[in-house]
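Data deposition worksheet. Section B asks for the primary sequence of the deposited chain exactly as it was used as input, without tags or linkers unless they were present during the calculation. Section C holds the resulting structure in token form. Section D is free text for depositor observations; keep each observation to a single sentence. Incomplete worksheets are returned to the depositor.
Section A, Depositor: J.P.
Section B:
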Amino acid sequence: MLQNSGNSLDPLLKPTSATTEPQLLRNLSLLETWGFGLTGLLLWIGVAPGTQEELGAQAMWVWVPGAIVGVLVNLQVRQLGLLLPNISGGTPSYVTHLLKEYPRLTSYAAIGYFISWVAVLPINGIILSNLVQAILEPLGIFLPDAVLQIGFTVLAFIVALSGSHALGTLHLIFIVPAVGFLLAFCLQGSQAVFFSGANLDFLPGDGSTFSFQGWAKWYLNGTYAFYACETAAVFVADSKRPQGTLQSLLVAAGLLPFVYIGGSWLLLHLVQTPGLRDDTFLTLFSAAQTFWGKYTPFLVTFLVVSSSLLTSASAVAVCPRILYQLAQDHHISPVLGVTSRQGVFTPGLLLTLVLSLVWLTFGNVNRIVMITVVGWLVCFIVLHWGLWKKRHQYPGVLFPWLSLGFCAMELVVLVVGGLAWGLPDLLIGLLLPIAVLLIDRLLQNLSWQPLKPEWWIKHYELRRQKSLQSFIGLQVLILTLFIGGATIISWFSSTLVTRSPVNNQAHPDLLIVLILVLSFIGVAIACWTIFPQIVAVNTARQQAEKLSADLQQTIAALQQTQLQMVQQEKMSSLGQLVAGIAHEINNPINFIYGNVSYAQTYVTDLLSFIDFYQQQYPEPNPEIAAEADRIDLEFLQKDIIKLLNSMQVGTDRIREIVLSLRNFSRTDESECKTIDIHSGINSTLMILQHRLKANAEEPEIKIIKDYGELPPVECYPGQLNQVFMNILANAIDALRELGCGESMGRSPCITVRTLLTNSEWVQVSIADNGTGIPEEIKSRIFDPFFTTKPVGKGTGIGMSISYQIITEKHKGKIFCRSTPGQSTEFTIEIPLRLTAATPNLVVINSHNNGNGKDENY
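Section C:
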């Protein structure tokens, strides 16, 4: 993709970037991008418990419309991704390209979207830190919250600094069990509810009443989850199969109602323990113990921890790509648009890390979500408004009026829900994107080198050229320390759990958390140590392939140059020879031609004088009469006039041949000139006239001229005549050597047609009624040195040179149509005005249009 997806886009959708930075390499597999695309489903885990705790059964009115809008958002974003396959960053980048006339608004919306994804890292850091503290507290172990939170927040960056493939590998390791356990929770929970005989009403009677303010408050929070299933669009620009990557949005859209509506409905029926507040672990534990039994602690812990680690990995993959595309489109500092060949967005990752550590200072998950979800929702408000606004300007809008309705609904939710959470937090959320943009503008004005793209480009180049030998020792040391540390921690934890007098479920939970976290770190370090080697090998392979390709191109260029030199030398020699012969013949024939008329006059006068003498002396003397009889004077008087007339016709014919030779050679017309194209065709036919005549063994080849009214054509006359000569000579060879005559049941002929196809193009068709083209040589008509003629009768370069003369020199087209057993027709199309023609016109492909040539070509 999109590898270069072929749609003709509306000008509104064309990128505004004029940057010289290279486009992202398409090096992510379809499986890797699908893993990123399914992460959004896991965000339900963090939002559903709090929604149910406050709204009770009325929480379903949050999830039902939210899931519906989420599905439609996925379908719409997929459509935009198909139109913009080379744009990274997903939804915020589509917003900036959709509304290019509002750069400040779209920059604000895109940064708001970015901030919300940054918040995923500290939120997961806090959740994992609280979970570990809850597990360690019964064991009498206390660790500083700040250390745990920073450690879990920074953890994902270790993998991100190893490149896109490292993140993709990590994601694939955890995505299947995480999403699998979530779907198992929904499926087995549904089975448990249906077979329990409990009330299956959509809204169980828990006494809760609908509150619009409460609904808006939690719908605002919920958008953080049900709008996030379009994540795969972020990776379209560096996907090997962009269209396949966008298909994951359809899969996510299909699973979204099942998880978000079905899972929330299960919580209403299965959570029996009151007062769980918004604790994710306890809420899922209370619901799952009905059907998972004694395995509930293990499975729920695994689900919560793996989901947190996964969404953190997604965040460090999504955020830099958003910044990259914004920088490419000149919305933010260009330094954020720099990336390495391995897909490491170091400047973007550093900014993401700094902001995520800043969010940790807020300390409260709900408050972080509330503040950052404001910018998130603003981005979708602008998206829906832009879709409605541009509904008539391109076909990318699927639901224009629904988009307008969503925009209005989201504005109400933003105001009412934001005020319900608190005016200060609402204002902070609205001002955060502005603050980030102002800081970015300030940094652009600083002269510090690491803030300049050139510094990072040079750094990446030096790092790429640096030998990895010095890096291997460090890799081995880190792997050794990790294995030893993991062994010590595992042994210490196992001993602590075994000897602890406290007998509760916290013990195995601790082991689960340790296993998952250590596995995450292990994969991170493995990626960091192994992927540089893989990348080095892959880079070497790519360089070798590039060198091989360059070598092949060089060889092909040398062959082409050699071919051109041979043909040019051949035609130059032939042209000089023809021009010289024409010149040498022209002088004496002009002498003869100029004196024939005088000779006719003189002879006529002499014959008149003889007639007059015979009238005066009708009876000549015997000697004169005898001499008159001897020379047959009467016959001589009649035949000499015929002889002189024949000489006149002969000299005229020789003059025409000389003129044709001069016109064909065009030695004085190597530059582009305006000529009558029919004169070139006629000159070529004149030179080939001797091959068209009948002889004892072969019939005459008739020439049918079907000339249209053509204005003068701007071309290279000598080279164009060369093309006519090659095609006509090959047609004559085909008709002669295939015995096209009585044995074929028809007279051989060649038809030459010319016409003006439109006001700018001239078409010349040369067709013979031979036996057509064998299938096995159709695709090789214009290959250099290809010929089916015997050795010594053809070089195989005539049609290749003709192809170059027409397509490269005259910026035209040449193609061939053939009906086996009936005919072959070559068609040439060239522009009337060569200087105004568009270069690089396509020559119709033989496989699509029946290109080929006769057996003798």
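Section D:
Residues 506-616 form the longest helix (111 residues).
The first strand starts at residue 673 and ends at 675.
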